Amino acid sequence: MFKLIILVSIFCLSCSASAKPDCQYYLNKLKKVQSQLRAGYTVGQGEKLKKKEKQARNLWWLCSKNKLPKAELKRLKQRQNSKKH
Which residue has the higher pLDDT, 83 or 8? Predict the structure, then answer.
C-alpha cells in the first residue's frame, strides 16, 4: 500500500512538472525591470517602469500557476522553439 501511494505521488508530481511551462523567461523579465527601477529614473520613466513591472509580475505569476492565456502560451512556445534552433 505504501509503495502504491509513493508511485502515485511521484506520477502526479512528474505530470504537474512536465505540464508547467518554463517560466524562467518571465522571471528574468521581471528581475530586469526591477533592477531598472532600483536605478535612477525620471518621473515619466518611473511610471512606465512600474507599469511594466506590474505586467511582468502578473505574467510570471500566471505562468507559475499554469494559468497563462492561450496567446501568451503560444508566444512562449515560439520563443522556446527559436532558442532550440
Answer: 83
